[in-house]
Structure formats: structure tokens, C-alpha cells
Amino acid sequence: MIEHLPALMIAVPLFGAFTTPLLKGKPRAAALWALAITAVTLGLGTLLVREVTAGGTMIYVFGADSPGLVLPSGYRVPVRIIFEVDAMGAFMALSAVLMSFIGAMYSYSHVERESGLEKYYSLLLLLEVGILGMVLTGDLFNLFVFLEIAGIAGSALVGFRNYRGEASEAGIKYLIVSAVASLMVLFSIGLLYGQYGNLNIAYLSRQIGFNTVDMIALGILFASFAMKCGSVPTHHWVPDAYTEVPAGINPTLLVATYASLYALFRVSFSLFGEITLSMSSVGWIMSILGVLTMFIGVTMALVQKDVKRLMSYHAISQTGYMLLGVGVGLTVLNDPAKLAAFGRDAMAGGIFHIINHIIYKSLLLMTAGALFYVTKTRNLNEMGGLARKMPYTTIAFIVGAAAISGIPPFNGFASKFLIYETSYQLNPLLAIFAMVTSVLTLASFVKVFASAFLGPPVKEYENVGEVPKPMIAAMLILAALCILFGLFPNVVLDKLVYPAVDALLNLGGYQTWGGVL
Amino acid sequence: MNNVVLVNLPFVVVALLLAVGFYTIGFKRNLIKVVIGIEILEGAVNLFLIALGYVKGAYAPIYTMAPPQAENNMVLPTPQALTLTSIVIGVAVSALMLAFAVNIYRHYGTLDVTKVRRLRG
Asked: Which residues cross the membrane (chain B) (predicted)?
């Protein structure tokens, strides 16, 4: 059973996705079914993480028990679809299954008034399949296929409220971006396949010699994945998509975005990891993109009136921190002294920030969804005095806002502090930009808090109450995670983050298929 | 000289199609034309994959009933499998994009991308 875990991680939600439409006309049953499937996947994901941290990289070959095809001459090539799960992949898979579960729980009440819910839950599970496939696979073409699955399911969910024209507008924007990005990924896969005749990432990374065509492939892959993870200058789709998608999907959609970030890291560290000279310039590009992303994102957020749109711009800005952290690590990848001094910690900061950000941004977007559920508006100027009416939502919002601004006892501080410290050692200017961004983040959340929760009560909302229990439960779980991750960052760092960093850095271990070959 | 051009003709066509596709996505204002641009892009990528796998005079990679001269002279099957998968995915993407376009036309009364801009700021 245990050795089939990587395949089950895909098979269970895929089974759920194709059985949910059978529950047409029974929205409650569909919701509970999706909740059950995501709960089972969460269990499988936890097992997978335990297995990978204890036993090292897991290899799963579809249709055979060994990855290689041995020719009579003794030459071995990987020919089948191979799932290669190292600690980094397991880390992303855990975020995906956790957030899909929380999202399904929140959706139970949040979208109960909508129609076509069996399709909604089916797409939610399909999105989960796409993410899990992207982070678990060790095959470039498979990566493309799952990228497309996540892109199609994600954009269909963005356009879910099809009685609103804006939802379709955001949906087609997201779909055009993801279609162009993934077609370009396929093009560069073709370039690599034409040269080396294989699609396995580990095998390719051993062959790559970095001629002109490889450089073009690296450039296209880098640009496409940066586009899909919402980095500046191709960030325009993020605020639209995150604003229009129902708040229960936000956590999963966030993880889908960071699955592209994972692919970006995988390409830089594993696929092209052996190119010793040029990776430091790629690292610099990544760090500078990160700084630009965080700064432009936060300045755009400051002027927003729509509460969810404001938070979506913060999602762009926080992506910048992850790019900066891992970019700093990539810059010093081939300098062992600097890598040990601050590069490894910088990457740990960047990767720790992924899970922290997924937790607190999902929490914040869910509180925005709760405000929308109660007030039917997202305009901050029309809200006011909701703190007394919605105490749990207020607490959840305060925790989330403190975490995103990097205030000490919460989880945002733990990862941001690592990034400040380490990027300062590469170049002080990077750290200064990161800190200014944090201060601006706090400023914009004070604005939201003051206009939505404080102030005189608005007459229209006199009779509103707290949101239903499943929504509160989902928000409180995330708020508790925010505090736990903030109080005990070392546990998470040692158990999840540093293994993930070491897995990215340990190229030799990845190339040998975890010791099978 | 003539031979070189003929051998590389598929790749020249790929480059042209990529240019046309990006031009259409970037500069056309009608949403349907943007969708067509993405389809052209997809055609370019699929043609590229097929052209990679083509070997002159080689046999299709089917082992049953293969003639004896096909031994050691078969085309790689992978690019064709990749292309088939990519075509199927492309159909799904274009269907969803057209569905969005229809819905946008219903709500905005136009397909002009410069006018479909309620989300901004």
C-alpha cells in the first residue's frame, strides 16, 4: 500500500472528481462527498510526507517496477511515466491537500446558495489533481499535462459565478495566460526532447550541456512559469482571478499558483542545476523580479477599495518574498561557503514563506469571503462596524493581518525574518525593500480593519450575524495554524522546510532516481 | 542548398506560425480572434513536435506485422503521443475559452477586448 502512495494521491481525488457529477441535484451530498475525498487525500498526503522524510525520495513507475529500460548493450534509459517525490514535492503536496480540505469545508456553507454545485466540487477536486500531479511528477511532459489540468479547472472555477460578467472576464484572462504559458512550456519541452531524446527530468539534467538551444529552453521555461506564478511584469491576471473566484476555492487556487513557483524552482535547481556558471545570473534575475514583484504588488494594493482585490494584490507582493528568498539561494548555489553561510537559510525562508503565505492569505481571503457573504458587497467604503456582529471573523482577520505584516508571534514573522537576514548578506538593498514592503502591508491592512470592522455601525447591516459554522471552523483552523507555525517555527523548519531545501540542493540524489539506478 | 531548405521547411513554418499567433494574441481586439491566435500557437507547437519525430523513410512504430526492413528503422513514438495528448488538451482549452467568450458577449454586449474592462485598478 505504502509504495503506491504517489499514485493514490492522484487516483483518489481523480476518482472523486469524476464521481461528484453523479450527485447532480443533491448539493449537500456532493459537498460532503468532496469533503470526504479531500479528507482521505489529506490523510494520504500526511502519510506521504512521513514516508518521504523517513525513507528519502520515493519513486513510482507506472506500469513497471523499475524505472529503466535496459537495452542489450547495457544502456539504461527511463521510458515510462515516473513519479519522483522528494521532500520538496512532498512539502508542496501537503500544502495542496491541506488547503483543498479547508477549501471544501469552507465551501460547504459559502456557496450553498449557488447552483451547479456538483460541478463546482468536481472542478475543485480536479484542481487538486492538477496541483498534486505537478508537484509529484518527475517527467516534463507529465508536468505540462497537469499544468493544463490545473489551468483549465482553475479558470473554470474563476468563472464559476457565470451570472456575473466580471467572472467570465477574469476567467478568460486566467485561461489565456495559462494556455499561452503552458504552450510555451510544451515548446521548450519539444526543444529539450529533440536534443536529448528523453522527458525524464532527472535523466535530462544529467545530459544537459547548455548550448544555445538549452539556453532558449531555460529562458522560455523561466518566463512561462514566472508568468503562471504571478510575478511582475505578468501579474495582471492575479487580482482579477483571486477576486472573482468563490472564497472557498482561493486556498486551492493559491496553491495552484505556487505549484508553478515549484516548477520554476524545479527547473532552476534540478533540470538546469548542473550549469554552474550561469545560474548565479538566473538567481539575480529571480531576486530582482522578487523585489519588483513585492514592491509593485503592495503599492497597487494600497489604493484598492475592493477588499478582496486589495488582498489579491498582496498575494502578488508576497510571491515576491518567495522569489527573493529562493533567488538569493540560487545566486550563491555554486559557492559552497556562501551557500552554507546564508544561501541555505535564504531558501528555507523562501520555501517556509510559501506555506505560511498559503495559510494566512487563504485565511484573509476567507474573511473577505465572509464579509461578502454577510454584506453582499466587497466595497470597503460601504462597510463598517462589523466587529461586534462577527466576532470570530474579526479575530481571524486580526490574526491573518498580523501574520501577513510579519508581527512577531505569528508565522509571517518567522519566514520574513529569515529572508531579511539572509538577503541583507547578499545585498542590503534587497532587505531594505523587503522591510519597506512589510510596513506598507501593515498600513493597508490597518485601512481594511478600520473601514470594515471598526467605525460606526451601518444601518443596512443591523440584523446581520456571524457566518455559518463550517466557515468559522475553516477560518479558525487556519488562524490556529498561523499561531502554531509562529510559535514553533523550528519544528516546521526542521521537519518540513529544511528537508525540502536540501532536496532541492541535492541534485545528485535527484538524478539517480533516489538510489534505484 | 535546396535540400537544406526543404528539410528545415517544417521549422520555418513553425517559426512563422508562432509569430502569427503571438501577433494575433497581442494586437487583435476581437476576443474570438484572440482565441484563434492561441489555436495557431497550438498548431505551431504541435507541428514542431511532429517535425521533431519525423525521420525520412522510417517506419511507423508498430511492432505487430512489421516488415523485416523496419528493424532499427522506426520513428520514435513519443512525439506522436505527445502531440495527440496536446491536441486533446487544446480542444478542452478552446472550448472553455469560447464558452467564456459567449458569456462575456451576453453580459457586455461586445467582444472587443478594450471594452471588456470592468475589472481594473
From this structure: 6-27, 34-55, 81-105
Q: Convert the pLDDT of each residue in B12-29 to its tens digit.
A: 999 999 999 999 999 999
Question: Could you tell me if A219 and B80 are in contact, meaning their C-beta atoms sit under 8 angstroms apart?
Answer: no
ipTM of the complex model = 0.93
Residue A31 structural domain: 2-516
Distances in Å between the Cα of B97 and the Cα atoms of A169, A230, B42, B116 are 10, 20, 14, 15
What domains are defined for chain B? 1-56+72-108 (1.10.287.3510)
Chain A partners within 8 Å of B42 (Cβ) = 183
CA A469 to chain centroid, in Å, comes to 26
Is A379 part of the contact surface with chain B (CB cutoff 8 Å)?
no
Q: Average of pLDDT values for A59-66? A: 80
Give B39 to chain A, closest Cα distance, Å: 10
Cβ of A186 under 8 Å from any chain B Cβ? Answer: yes
Residue of chain A minimizing CA distance to B86: A145
Q: What is the mean predicted confidence (pLDDT) over A318-336?
A: 87
Alpha helices by DSSP H, listed for A197-306, are: 201-207, 212-228, 237-244, 250-266, 279-302
pLDDT of residue B121: 62
Q: What is the pTM of this model?
A: 0.93
| Distant-in-sequence, close-in-space partners of A434: CB < 8 Å, separation ≥ 6 | A291, A294, A321, A324, A416, A419, A420, A423
Q: Which of B35, B93, B110 to mutate to test the interface with A (most CBs of A within 10 A)?
A: B93
> Which among A77, A91, A84, A73 is positioned nearest to A7, based on CA atoms?
A84
Number of domains in chain A: 1
Quick check: A172 and B108 CB within 8 A? no
Query: Are the Cβ atoms of A176 and B97 closer than 8 angstroms?
Result: yes
Q: Quick check: A187 and B45 CB within 8 A? A: yes
**Any idea which residue has 469560447 for its cell?**
B98
Instruction: Sort out which chain A residues have CB atoms less than 8 A from B101's CB and list them.
Output: 172
DSSP assignment of A445-478 equals HHHHIIIIISSSPPGGGTT--PPPHHHHHHHHHH
- Residue B56 dihedral angles phi and psi, to the nearest 5°: -65, 125
Q: CA of A147, closest CA in chain B: separation in Å?
A: 11
